[in-house]
Structure formats: structure tokens, C-alpha cells
Design goal:
There is one protein chain. The chain is of the alpha+beta class and 719 residues long. The protein folds into 5 domains: 70 residues, Alpha-Beta Plaits, CATH 3.30.70; 257 residues, no CATH class; 91 residues, Distorted Sandwich (Calcium-transporting ATPase, cytoplasmic transduction domain A), CATH 2.70.150.10; 140 residues, HAD superfamily/HAD-like (Rossmann fold); 102 residues, Calcium-transporting ATPase, cytoplasmic domain N (3-Layer(aba) Sandwich). Helix content is 51%, strand content 20%. It is built from 23 helices and 26 strands. Strand 19 and strand 20 form a beta hairpin. It is elongated. The N terminus is likely disordered.
Length: 719
């Protein structure tokens, strides 16, 4: 598609890149993008064909041209597609890849199997002809994709993993063809034919790619599953009460939608009619339905369980919570962790290095006087060296982990965030809105003597606090309203910064002032009539989460703006020592404390007043509501009522990091051990066939390890 040359410069671009086949292709695209002025970083995923570019004054046309100059096709993603369109696009792309590799595998192995049977059981003169014809068909069909990719890379003066496969298969085929023709014209070279091996390695490698495509689709199913949760259609209610059905993508803000019992909410909105319990597990991970009535927010994908609701849309059908979550997950799955940089650097130089090793192997055996063995060893080196497993090691694990997390309401924004969570050493909680619910309530009333009742004292305190916006004042007023007390009007209201409030109530001077022993004390005409305690209720799982973090060997600190006595009281309830509590902290001091922590710091806040501290931490985790899920200052977003998501996220990240290290270790060891064995001819005359099987096995091992992680994470998060 054409790109406008007068487009406004941007700070972030997303491209859809096609034509990539391997990790070295992705590295080539990434290198081309990062070479352009203004680009700070680029992340390119061969698995889902996405490129994310960050920088300053980015011009789409310049970036697209850089990718196209490398021989790949790129299109800018200008606007977010509708969930149904994106879901269809993902499914079609994955189905196309799987179908392509299945065809190549069936052709390659379907022809090679009878060829191999003939080779080992029949000694007729026509058998070599059958081997030649069969091998030629396999190279022309199953090998066509490898050759196109290798030739395209050569025209760009670069190489990729298909280069190794194409050269290996061609070398085996051409060597066999020379031996065959020589025998046909009467000059018998007395060398074996490797037509079968040439066909087999293409068939086996295609089989490996087919299994890889199937496993990748399974590992990356999280985005599709999320998008499936948003209904394709919505029932609109017009001003006359008539109902008509339209695609949910066409819903606009202000439209009213009918949501029947058992149906999913099509688009985020506000309930304007009816009452029901709504299952919001799609965004919170919790399956307990939440009561909704007029004025309450509901999000796309949540299930209306009982009553009939009419919901007024607050966003259009393209920008729902489901779509935003899916976009975050997809971006995280295509991002790269720091640990992958080594693998990327290796992949970038690996193919040229292997070609050099193959040339040295060939020349070495030729000089040693055993040219046929040199050909076999060279082909074996080319095939067994393909670093497919190395390229899959990190992205497969990241895809599995971010997908598993998203299914439980935990949004990890990038692979880097996942890696940082796995290396966490010190967890810092902001008290209000994280360990506590963030809504102070009046918990205790202590009249000074029997002449003062709780109701009379609360009535006066609520009157003077009524004009105040302070959370403590709001809590006192709510308590009076819940007791259905008559709250008189205050006159001469005055707020005393850092101390409290005062005003005239029923002709008396009433003051609510700060107290050292409790939250506040109430004075009438200068005489103290009692004290009150306003506390922020702990979240149900706060103590359990802190205990779990301690069990995991993590240091835990709680930050609070409250006085030390109040902060320590909360700390005791969640299992923290006084040394683990920082009281009377301001937003500035919180940010400074977090900034001075050693590496491995994690800050958990509500994403509103804690933005500075979240940004200063190595990793910021925001506890956010479903409608405010993409908080920019945080690297990870977890449900606002689920503190246990913090240790779950860290444990998930640790297991993912462990899996990545296992995959990288296996991939490196495989190549380090396999290349010398192949070059020295230790794999014997059937080395190319063994190499193809070994390469496919290495890919399957890495993929299998990632899928094992998926099952493990699903079990862990479920419990």
C-alpha cells in the first residue's frame, strides 16, 4: 500500500513484515531498521511477522523502504483493526503457514520413503533412474520455498538459514547427478548416490517446520482466544426501543446495546438500564460475577449472567478493552528480552560462519584425498548447523508466558519486563490502593466520656468534614450517612493544612484535628470530646501475597504516607516487620527511595499517585481497573483486586527465564557439538540424513520445552 510522504513524524511505528523465514531474516530486518536515523530500537518477530519501532521523528515511508530494500515486504499498521478482522488475519496467516509446510513435508517424505525402500531392497538398473526422478520432484516442490528464500537473500548480498539448506540439498543432488551421469556414459566413479538423502533432508526439515508451525499456533493462541471473547455482533436499541443487529466493530460511543442474559458485552460501556451479575474473568482473572446496576461500567467480553442490561457504549468497536489487551499481548509476544541479544548476535553471523566452515571441511577432505567423504561431510555441516533452535529459544517461551499471564488478567507489556520480573530481588509496595483497597473507612469511635455518644460526635464531625475532599473526611461523612444521621450545615469552614478542619456547627466551634495515637480527635469549643480511627481495609489476599514473596526469598518493603503508628499497624496485619516499613513518605521521597535501590527492584502501585516511583523502579507493576488497563508508567498491569498476582507474576517470570536459559543452553550445545562431528565425518555416509533428523529434533525439543512451560504455568496460575 502507498505511504504518504507528508505523514507527520511519529515516535512509534508498527509494521507487518512478510517474507521472513528464520531468525536471521528477522535479524536482517531489525538491522536495516535500526540503521535509519532517529530509530532508537526495533523489535522484529519472525513468529508473528510484526516489527515494532521506537525512536524520534520516525517516518513510515523511510522505515518501510529500509525493509523493502532488504527484500522483504512491509506494510504500516496505521489503525487498529476490528477484533474480528485481527482474529481472522491471525488465523489465516497461521493456517497458511501450517498448510504450506504440511504440503512440503508430505511431498518430500511421501516420495523419499518408497525411494529409500527401493534403494535398500531392489538392485535393478532402473532404481537409480527412479531415485533421480523422485529427488528432482522433491527439490522442485518441497525445495522450492527454500530456494526462493536463499536466492532472494543472495540477491540482497546476505544469507539466511534457507541458504544452508538449499546449498546442502543441491550439493548432495549435484554430486549424485555427476556420479549417475558418469556411470551412464561408461565412467563408473564407484561412489554412492545421495539422491535419497537430498530428498529426505528437505522432507524432514519441512516436517520439522510443519510441527513448529502447529506448536507456534498453539503457543500463541492467547491473542486469538482474547479476540474470540468479543462478540462479532451487537444488538443496538434505538430511541423507539427497536432492536437491530450490527457488527460490533461498527458500534460508536453513545450507542445503546442490549445485552441479554448469557450474552457477552460487545463494547465497553455504562449500564443505563437493568441490573445483573457480570462475570469479568476476561480482564480480572476472577470468575466470581460482580453485581452491576445503572451507572456501573462493564467491559467488552464480560458475560452477563442473569438479568437484562442496556449498556451505553463509551468507546467504538475497534478500541475496546479486549482489543487493547490483545494488542498489549501481541506486542509483548513480538518483543525481545535482553537475554536474546546474544542469540540474535550469533544468528546474524552464524550462517556466513557455517558456510566458511563447510568450505574448509570440503577443502580439507579434498586435500586429504577423499573427495566423496568431503562432499558428505560438507552437506552434513550445512544441514546440522542451522540455528533454528537458537532463533526459537526465547520467542517461544515469551509467547507462552505472556499468553498464560493474559488469561489470568496479568498483562506483561514486553519480554524485557518478563525478564526483569524473573530477576526480581526486592519488592516495594505502596500501601494505599495495593495492599489496601484504597478507600478509607471509619473503623473506631471513642467518645471521651459517657456524656458524649458515638452518634452525636459523628454527627458533628461529619458536618465539619462535609466540604472537605480529604479521604479521611470522606470516610467520616460516609459513616454518618450509613448510620442515617442528620448532618447539619457548617459555616465558616476552614481547612488547616497538615492538621485538619474547623467550622461552626449548631453555634459551636467544631474541629477535627490530627491525632498522634489515632487518626483524628474531635474538639467542640476547644474541648476534646473523643477520637476516631479511620483505616483503609486490607485486601483479602494481601497477607498471603506478602508471605508468598518472603517464601520466594524476596525482600519486601511497604511505603506509606501515613504516620508510622498507622503504617506499622497495617504492616503487622500483612506480616511485615517495622524495618520493612517506610512511613510518612511523599511521592517525591518514594521515587527517590526506589531509585536508590540495588538492581532487581520491583515497585507495585495503583498507577495514579505512584507514577514517578513506578518509572524509577527496574520494573513497575500497576494494579489497575479493567477500564484503565494500559497504564503507561508501568511495565506490568495486574487486576486491582488481586495482590497474589504479584508473586504469581514473579514466579511465572522465573520459570520462563529458566526455560529460556534451558533452550539457549541446548541450542548452543547442539551446534557446538554437532558441527565438529559433522566436519570430521563422524556421522558416516548417511550424515546428511542424520543431520536433517537431528536439526528437526533440536527444534522440536525447544518447542516441546516451551509447551511444557505452558502446561506448567496454566496449572500454577489455576491454583
Amino acid at each position: 500500500m502507498p505511504v504518504s510522504t507528508i505523514e507527520k513524524p511519529r515516535r512509534e511505528l508498527q509494521l507487518k513484515v512478510t517474507g521472513m523465514h528464520c531468525a536471521s531474516c528477522a535479524a536482517a530486518v531489525q538491522g536495516a531498521i535500526e540503521a535509519k536515523p532517529g530509530v532508537r530500537s526495533a523489535s522484529v518477530s519472525v513468529i508473528d511477522g510484526l516489527a515494532t519501532v521506537l525512536g524520534e521523528n520516525l517516518h513510515t515511508e523511510t522505515i518501510v523502504d529500509a525493509v523493502r530494500d532488504r527484500g522483504y515486504h512491509a506494510e504500516p499498521i496505521i489503525d487498529r483493526p476490528a477484533p474480528a478482522e485481527l482474529r481472522s488475519e491471525i488465523e489465516l496467516r497461521q493456517a497458511r503457514q501450517e498448510r504450506l509446510w504440511r504440503f512440503r513435508a508430505i511431498v518430500g517424505l511421501g516420495i523419499w520413503a518408497p525411494m529409500a525402500l527401493l534403494h535398500w531392497t531392489v538392485s535393478e538398473v532402473w532404481v537409480p533412474w527412479v531415485m533421480l526422478i523422485g529427488s528432482t520432484i522433491v527439490l522442485a516442490t518441497a525445495g522450492a520455498g527454500f530456494y526462493r528464500s536463499a536466492i532472494a537473500a543472495a540477491l540482497r548480498r546476505t544469507t539466511n538459514m534457507d541458504t544452508l539448506i538449499a546449498i546442502g540439498a543441491t550439493t548432495a543432488y549435484v554430486f549424485s547427478l555427476v556420479v549417475f551421469i558418469s556411470g551412464f556414459i561408461g565412467r563408473n566413479l564407484e561412489q554412492p548416490l545421495y539422491f535419497g538423502e537430498a530428498a529426505a533432508l528437505l522432507g524432514i526439515i519441512s516436517l520439522g517446520h510443519w510441527l513448529e508451525a502447529r506448536a507456534t499456533a498453539k503457543a500463541g493462541s492467547a491473542v486469538r482466544e482474547l479476540l474470540h471473547l468479543q462478540p462479532d455482533e451487537a444488538e443496538l436499541v434505538d430511541e423507539h426501543g427497536q432492536v437491530r443487529t450490527i457488527p460490533s466493530a461498527e458500534v460508536q460511543p453513545g450507542d445503546r446495546m442490549l445485552v441479554r442474559p448469557g450474552a457477552r458485552v460487545p463494547v465497553d460501556g455504562t449500564v443505563v438500564e437493568g441490573a445483573s451479575d457480570v462475570d469479568q474473568a476476561v480482564v480480572t482473572g476472577e470468575s466470581v460475577p460482580v453485581s452491576k446496576t445503572c451507572g456501573d461500567l462493564v467491559v467488552a467480553g464480560s458475560v452477563n449472567t442473569t438479568g437484562r442490561l442496556v449498556v451505553e457504549a463509551t468507546v467504538d468497536g475497534h478500541h475496546t478493552t479486549i482489543a487493547r489487551i490483545a494488542q498489549l499481548v501481541q506486542r509483548a509476544q513480538s518483543s525481545k528480552a535482553n537475554i536474546q541479544r546474544l542469540a540474535d548476535r550469533v544468528c546474524a553471523v552464524f550462517v556466513p560462519a557455517v558456510l566458511m566452515i563447510a568450505l574448509v571441511t570440503f577443502l580439507g577432505w579434498w586435500i586429504a584425498g577423499d573427495l566423496p567423504k568431503g562432499v558428505v561431510a560438507t552437506v552434513t555441516v550445512l544441514i546440522i548447523s542451522c540455528p533454528c533452535a537458537l532463533g526459537l529459544a526465547t520467542p517461544m517461551a515469551v509467547m507462552v508466558a505472556t499468553g498464560a499471564a493474559s488469561r489470568h488478567g496479568i498483562l506483561v507489556k514486553s519480554a524485557v519486563a518478563l525478564e526483569l520480573a524473573g530477576r526480581a530481588r526486592h519488592v516495594v509496595f505502596d500501601k494505599t490502593g495495593t495492599l489496601t483497597a484504597g478507600q478509607p473507612t471509619l473503623s473506631e469511635i471513642h467518645p471521651a466520656d459517657q456524656s458524649v455518644t458515638e452518634e452525636s460526635m459523628l454527627r458533628l464531625a461529619a458536618a465539619v468534614e462535609a466540604p472537605s475532599e480529604h479521604p479521611i473526611g470522606r470516610a467520616i461523612v460516609r459513616a454518618a450517612q450509613q448510620r442515617q444521621l442528620d448532618i447539619p450545615v457548617v459555616s465558616g469552614f476552614q481547612a488547616i493544612p497538615g492538621e485538619g478542619v474547623r467550622g461552626k456547627v449548631d453555634g459551636q466551634l467544631v474541629e477535627v484535628r490530627r491525632s498522634e495515637s489515632m487518626t483524628c480527635r474531635v474538639l467542640v469549643d476547644g474541648q476534646e470530646v473523643g477520637m476516631m480511627m479511620v483505616a483503609d481495609a486490607l485486601r483479602d489476599d494481601a497477607a498471603k501475597a506478602v508471605a508468598r514473596l518472603h517464601d520466594m526469598g524476596l525482600k519486601v518493603t511497604m511505603l506509606s504516607g501515613d504516620r508510622r503508628a498507622v503504617a506499622e499497624a497495617v504492616g503487622r496485619e500483612v506480616g511485615l516487620d517495622p524495618s520493612e516499613i517506610e512511613a510518612e513518605a511523599t511521592p517525591e521521597s518514594k521515587a527517590e527511595l526506589v531509585a536508590n535501590l540495588p538492581p532487581g527492584s520491583v515497585m507495585i502501585g495503583d498507577g495514579i499517585n505512584d507514577a514517578a516511583a513506578l518509572a524509577e523502579a527496574d520494573l513497575g507493576i500497576a494494579m489497575a481497573s479493567a477500564t484503565n488497563i494500559a497504564i503507561e508508567s508501568a511495565d506490568v498491569v495486574i487486576p486491582s483486586d488481586h495482590v497474589m498476582a504479584v508473586p504469581e507474576t514473579i514466579e511465572l517470570a522465573r520459570k520462563t527465564l529458566s526455560t529460556i536459559k534451558q533452550n539457549l543452553f541446548f541450542a548452543f550445545c547442539y551446534n557446538v557439538a554437532a558441527i565438529p562431528a559433522a566436519a570430521l565425518g563422524l556421522l558416516g555416509p548417511h550424515g546428511p540424513l542424520i543431520a536433517a533428523i537431528a536439526m528437526g529434533a533440536s527444534d522440536i525439543t525447544v518447542i516441546g520445552n516451551a509447551l511444557r512451560l505452558k502446561r506448567h504455568l496454566a496449572s500454577m496460575l489455576r491454583h
